Amino acid sequence: MASHRDNQHEETAIDRMNTHLTDAGSKIAENKKIIFIAIGVILVVAAFVLSYLFIYKNPKMEKAFEAYNGIETQNLNDSTAAAQYMQVADQYNGDTAGKLAALSAGEALYNQGRYEEAAEYLKKFSSNDDVLEANALVLTGDCYVNLEKYDEAINYFQKAVRRANNNPQIVPRVLLKEANVYDAQGNYGKALECYQQIKNNYPQFQLGNGMDMDAYIARELARMGEPAM
Q1: What is the pTM of this model?
Q2: What contacts 89, CB < 8 A, 6 or more positions away?
Q3: How confident is the prediction for the chain on average, in pLDDT?
Q4: Which of 28, 72, 140, 210 has the highest CB neighbour count under 10 A?
Q5: What are the angstrom distances between the C-alpha of 115 and each of 121, 139, 148, 190?
Q6: What average pLDDT does range 12-28 have in this prediction?
Q7: pLDDT of 82 strictly over 50
């Protein structure tokens, strides 16, 4: 009976972890939304400045920002927004506005469950902003998790960790996502490494589910048949 109760306890703990990982992803998404809004405001101002300074030198850039901002100012559903963002991203591929449109298209496609397409558009985005770039990489990894392409997901999560540059709000949450994928693969040793990185490098991080990194570390050690430290 004790063994049965222990199994029930572990299943509950795993369920809690998955629930809070979802919450963690939501917090990243919320953070990204804030960044999008801030950048959107900057871009509106930049669009007017660029229009004034370069209207004769770079009409393509002006049109690209006008197209992007035109979508941003509308209250569109994900399906309509995705279609319009994709059009701007394709038309102005490589331009700043085109890259931002690709990022927004990726997010809208992800929300529709169109993960393969979302990943392709997210890959068209690049930025000098570490936080924005890291969040785009995280979302790309999430696409591959949903597609059950776990190696690709891990690759993008690792890229996000590197790009986040030790950001304490992003890195530990991405490491949790990475650990969860390793668990799905049965690679408990790698999952353990992720939890140990969080414990050692981000001791103030709290998941908010009543469990700490020691509990996760102990779980992975048990799965590997090793004694708790």
Answers
A1: 0.74
A2: 98, 99, 101, 102, 105, 121, 124
A3: 80
A4: 140
A5: 10, 10, 11, 25
A6: 45
A7: yes
